[in-house]
Fold:
Amino acid sequence: MARGRAGEKGKSRLSRLAVGVAALGVALLFDLFLADFVHDSSIRQLLMLAACNVLVALSLNVINGMAGQFSIGHAGFVGLGGYTSAVMASNLHEMLGGGEPTFARSFIVVPVCLLASATLAGLFGFLVGLPSLRLRGDYLAIVTLGFAEIFRLVIATAQAGEDGSVVARALSRLGGQNGYMGIDNQGIPLYAGPFWVFGLAFFLGVVAWRIKFSGWGRALRALREDEIAAAAVGVDPTRYKVTSFVIAAVGAGIAGGLMAIMRDGTPIVNPDNYNFQASFDAITMVILGGSGSVSGAAIGGVFITFSIKAIEQVQATSAVQALRREFESLDLNALRMIVYAVVLVLLMVVRPEGLLGERELFQKKRRARG
Amino acid sequence: MRLVLEQVTKNFGGLRAVGGVSFTVRDKAIFGLIGPNGAGKTTVFNLITGVYKPDAGKIAFGDADLVPLKPAQIAGAGVARTFQNIRLFGQLSVVENLLVACELQKKAHLAAAVLRLPVHYEDEQAMYDRALELLRVFDLHEMADDAPTSLSYGNQRRLEIARAMMLAPSILLLDEPAAGMNYGEAEGLKTQIRWLRDTFGVAVVLVEHNMQVVMGVCEEIHVLDHGETIAQGTPEEIRRHPKVLAAYLGEDEEAPAVRAAVEEASNPVLPAVASAPDLAAPGAPPSAEKLSEPELADLSRELTKSLERGLSKPDDDADDAKVADDAEDAKDAGEKEVANVQAVEVVTEPAHPPPAVPAVTPSAPDVGALDSGWGSERDLAAHDADANGVDKGTNGVGAHDDAGEDPSKKGGA
Structure:
């Protein structure tokens, strides 16, 4: 917010530039040397996955937190971005001559893929956002969930084969239920290294922060509070809601696109990765961190990613395995749901507004009086 | 710019909420829209501001046809409003509530804000300065960073008006601004409404049940009942209009008798000014009240005393002295410059003629004077003084009536 900035404007611009360059440098160092000091590739994958999930949470926060629209189909946009990016990367890789994905080449592939993901996701965000003008609350949630499920099921049920329409043939190349494995099942070229993942997480985090602390973010919050009053002071609900939907979808598309071509992973772009569970995870991240809080969404994204991993570790312990041998019908996935449920219930009881509420970490103290 | 409604009709299912209502609000007018509960007043506001679309009829503001526009566009066209049930943005601070109203005037849009271009900072700073200025005008600047929910009821209403004024509107629609205000606060509101009009040059349309405010401040009044126009005219005309009386007091087989009785009771002597209704300078010229000089002096002294009693805050001393001075002046000359001290109006100014406002209203009250305009202790003191004035027997009308109007009825006799 622009309070009392007049004097320090020049200085703060310089320092912002410095921070940006420093972040770029750190991301570059990560890319070159991460493998040297984090030897376990699964940990590296986890770190990058956390960054991607932060992006998912940040984007969902725009629509669920700031605009107060309840979307429970965020995985649909993530999946759209994932498939788009995977297909683009595979084809670009082929065009560039195949071989090992190199860091230099990633500067061509990654931006193109993510741009395509963002555009397509944004387009669908616009289409899904349109009904949000008339719907609110539960009804809107159903529409978003419907979109995500339609997307997932269309891809999952596409049959392999060369008959049928152009669309059907194109869809069938996406691998159906088994997931997309690249052109001729060669696998997806993994171009997005830590430089891209952490760099984009930082960069888009700044964007989300600035969206929140701009007149636009303020208008969005006003709209959330009272739509009629907001319209009466010139905030057009249509424009702001649809725009927020598009922004959220673009963010989700970028996050999904990154995840699909993330290095160190075993990224199978699979419809099951974009089911309702994934949407629910995203909502948990936002609510856990504090609806409307940018830093809260980031914390939620990191926390959920690591807790999923931690639960997997617990599942692998001998005690749980022994328990499983005892009770054959025991579903280990249920363990995760139980932990989630307990965490959420505790949170709702202790801190209904989430860890941070709508506040931010490192938020500047409000100036006393104007 | 004038707001013109032509044969505006709105049905909700089988219910005709507004049927063929036509009126014109002139530039910089203070226009009252009254009627019993359910008469369709708020619906008319909602039709003007685009919350509802009329089923038939035309609504135009200046050259712009408002009917096809969306509420946000109508706000952009210069039509600002407040709400009957206060609608503030609870999670935003007081100053942020005002800043939201700047969205339309902003030069820096989303991309500029995300890139933090210089225009973004200039915009934010300019908006913030303007918001604080307005808050200062409405005496809310002390609470700029507070949550609006922590404000008192009267302050919330003022904040809503401040937020509407942030749009720099040409017309301001106030929906029951005096609801929940005590007598003193309502008196202050009258001053404030005139002040808004004179300072910002806005036309004000007022939906209000409080007759003290409506009759005291409006230059023209439009009366609705069951969605239809039953009367239009100056406060003086409306006050005596048989249909208005019927709508407010009910009408049955005994109606004529009841009405006559009521009229007699509330308006013992009706001046015959209605014969020459003139909208440009409506209302009767104030005729001198028949109080003798010594009587006037007595009243004035009493008033001064009661004011002094009522004002206990030391920092109000300066104002206090001013009030006393004003009272002295008023006693001597019976002049009109004292309109911001309602108590004095009541006693010494024979008729406080609302239509003659431009001359009467203090041109630009300073913040201190405004402060008093909104239910400060001085208003309460004024209230006391009013009661005194009425007791001293102008015509014994209940204190709920607009005391400023009453003497004229007597004076006409």
In short: Confidence is low (pLDDT under 50) at residues 1-8, 366-370 of chain A. Residues 167 and 347 of chain A are 45 Å apart (CA to CA).
